[in-house]
Every structure is written in C-alpha cells, then in structure tokens.
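Inverse folding, one chain.
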C-alpha cells in the first residue's frame, strides 16, 4: 500500500489533504469535525485584528446544467474575534494533537500588527502560520490581502517581520493575479518563508441577473468584484504550482479547484507536497476526503509510487518552454466508424474552427478524415461526445 503521509516544512501530515482557509474552517467545532472525517490538516478562516462584517448574500455560482463550474465569493475574513479563535485553537490542539493546524493571518503593512497576531495564535498552539497575501476583494482596499502579494518588496518585508517572531513554519499564500508569481515566491523565500501555498481565488465578476438587471451576487441590487474558486480555476492553480516548483525551492501546498483524487494527484505531480480543498467541501461536505484518500492510494499503487514524496514533481521535467517542444511529432485524427453516431459535431467543428479536414456528405454517412488536410490540432477529439471514437494517430 502506498504511503500517503507527507511532510510540509517539517510538519508531518497523515495524508496530503488539508482544508483551505474558507467557510469549512470557519469555527473550531467545524475543524474538529473535519479532522474526525479524515482530513490531515486545516488552515483556519483568515484571522484579522477586527472581525469582518460580511455582505449578504456573498456567493454566486457558474453552472453548466446542474454541474458547478465555479463559485464567486465576496466574503471577507473571519467574523469572529481573535480571543474566540485563541480558545478554539487551544481546544482543537487539545483534542487533535497529531493533526496539523495552520492559522491564516491577515493584517495591514504594519509590523506590530503581524507580530501581535502571530504571538497570539502561536501561544494558543498552532502548528504553522499562513500569511494571507492573496485575498482579491474587500481587503486590498484596506491595504491587505492581494495588494501585499502583488508587490515583491511588500511581500518580502512582511515575511521578514513575521520571521522575527515566528517559531513555527511560516507559509505565504499567494495570489495568481500577478504577472510573475515566481518573482513574488522568490521574494518570500529570500525573506525566510518556509513554504508557499497557491492559489487564492481569481478576481472575477460572475455575471448579471438579466431579469432584475442586477450584478451578481446581488447585495440588495449592487455587487462588487469577487474571488473565483472551484473546478474552473484548477488550470490556473496547476500552472502557478508548476512555475513555483521550477522557480523556487520551497515546499508547496497546492490549492484551487481540487474536488477529486485526480485533481490532487495532478497538483502533486507538478510539485505540491500537500493540497488544500475549499469549494468542493462547501458543496459536498467533509466526507469527500475518504474517496480522495482511497483514490490517490490506488493510483499510487497502480503507478508504482511508494510515497507522495516519490510522486511529487514527477512530470515537471516534461513541462518545457514552448520553443523546446518536439515540432517533428506529427499526428492526424482517426474516426472509429464502429463507435461513430454520425452526429456531425466533429464535421462542423473542423469546418468552422479547424482545417476543413473532415468530410461528411450527409447525416446518413460517416464523417471521414482527409489525412493530408488534417493539421493534428485535436479539436474534433474534444468535441466528439463518444469516448474513444476519435483518436490521434501518427501522421
Ligand atoms: C467563500 C470563500 C471564502 C474564502 N475565504 C478565504 C479566507 O478567509 N482566507 C483565504 O486565504 N482564502 C479564502 N478563500 C480562498 C480559498 O482558501 C482557496 O484559496 C480558493 O477558494 C481556491 O480553492 P478551492 O477551489 O478549493 O475553493 C475563500 C474561498 C471561498 C470560496
């Protein structure tokens, strides 16, 4: 059986699955229930000096059919006082000494504020700190969150201040909303950060209620830009983790769009030591971790990875610069007539979005690939509703 235990900056996690800072970690009671359900670690909802006052409602989703693609929120930091959190942290650690608890912290660019928050949560017994340099809404206007993670000098400076008093591992949580996330990661690494988590939500505007003519989520008729999470942002998170894995030497905690063991496996393969989950738990509950652990373990057995550490970053060498791709590799589409339903989707796509390489004389006849016209772009493969019907074969 594959060993699911991992190490993140010296902290031992029973498995790579942690809850991210979000509503599922809003209280100590919730975090304890999550640990009971099988999560190895959790990051508290972000704690600031002042409790937040949240807008209502503060969530809106993007769906395809009844499937959620992404979720936008305009939620701020925790609505609870620091003193309440201190008690909660003490209690969580009393009951779950072997689980890993990070406190997520947010403050202005003021050294004393960071020192104060860090000392409070450390005295309460947290195992690690996560500095939130990444919330894209509400807090940047107050000089907090993503404005700090968009400036390498500020991110480095706060990390340095934090390290003056921190006695437990210090992770910085970065925003994807920058030109070069590696530049920010390196600044934090040079300032002494012990780990990086990425990503926080992606700045977004989820849509308009066309009947009411109101922006969403509509807070009594108005709204504000928010942060986008869930399956839609996984490709952005994977890109950021891969870049950070190549460009820094810090341990990484991958976050963004993880809902199944497969998503977690992808994050580990591009360099994450552990992963964090938020939106998927909001929609499906803490129980999903059991399936994730089983699925990841079975996959590791199948592929011969004895440990997560062995698997970590395995495919990174295969992510190259575009100019280093093998341009001699040539393929063409091939349609399996035994599976084809003659729906014509591949024909239309190739006609109007491809290379006019698929011929289909009528809806009664099978589509046919004209090899010399096919440019191997793969569009037809992604359009075809029948799995395995269209494949790419050597040209
Ligand atoms: C409603 C909501 C509230 C969140 N609050 C916080 C927060 O307080 N601090 C923080 O660092 N990230 C916060 N996040 C961002 C998540 O921690 C995570 O980075 C992001 O949602 C991507 O992961 P996911 O796709 O698994 O949700 C929040 C996300 C959501 C959906």
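Residues assigned per position:
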């Amino acid at each position: 059986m594959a060993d699911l235990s991992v190490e993140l900056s010296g902290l031992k996690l029973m498995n790579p699955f942690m809850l991210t800072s979000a509503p599922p970690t809003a209280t100590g009671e919730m975090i304890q229930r999550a640990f009971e359900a099988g999560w190895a670690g959790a990051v508290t909802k972000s704690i600031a000096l002042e409790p937040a006052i949240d807008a209502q409602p503060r969530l809106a989703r993007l769906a395809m059919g009844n499937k959620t693609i992404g979720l936008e929120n305009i939620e701020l930091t925790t609505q609870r006082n620091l003193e309440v959190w201190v008690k909660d942290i003490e209690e969580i650690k009393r009951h779950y000494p072997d689980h890993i608890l990070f406190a997520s912290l947010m403050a202005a660019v003021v050294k004393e504020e960071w020192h104060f928050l860090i000392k409070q949560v450390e005295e309460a017994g947290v195992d690690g700190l996560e500095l939130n340099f990444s919330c894209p809404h509400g807090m940047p206007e107050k000089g907090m969150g993503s404005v700090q993670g968009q400036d390498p000098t500020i991110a480095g400076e706060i990390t340095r201040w934090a390290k003056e008093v921190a006695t437990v591992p210090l992770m910085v949580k970065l925003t994807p909303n920058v030109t070069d996330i590696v530049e920010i990661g390196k600044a934090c690494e040079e300032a002494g950060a012990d780990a990086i988590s990425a990503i926080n939500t992606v700045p977004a505007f989820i849509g308009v209620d066309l009947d009411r003519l109101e922006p969403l989520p509509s807070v009594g008729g108005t709204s504000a830009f928010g942060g986008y999470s869930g399956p839609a942002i996984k490709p952005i998170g994977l890109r950021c983790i891969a870049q950070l894995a190549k460009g820094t030497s810090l341990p990484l905690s991958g976050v963004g769009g993880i809902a199944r063991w497969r998503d977690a496996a992808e994050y580990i393969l591009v360099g994450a030591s552990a992963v964090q989950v938020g939106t998927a738990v909001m929609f499906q509950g803490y129980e999903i971790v059991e399936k994730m652990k089983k699925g990841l373990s079975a996959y590791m057995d199948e592929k011969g990875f004895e440990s997560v550490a062995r698997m970590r970053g395995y495919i990174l060498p295969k992510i190259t610069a575009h100019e280093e791709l093998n341009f001699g590799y040539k393929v063409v589409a091939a349609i399996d007539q035994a599976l084809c339903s003659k729906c014509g989707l591949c024909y239309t796509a190739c006609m109007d979005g491809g290379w006019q390489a698929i011929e289909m004389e009528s809806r009664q006849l099978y589509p046919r690939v004209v090899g010399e016209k096919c440019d191997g772009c793969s569009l037809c493969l992604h359009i075809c509703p029948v799995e395995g019907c269209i494949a790419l074969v050597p040209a």
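The two ends are 41 Å apart (CA to CA). Residues 336 and 389 are 5 Å apart (CA to CA).
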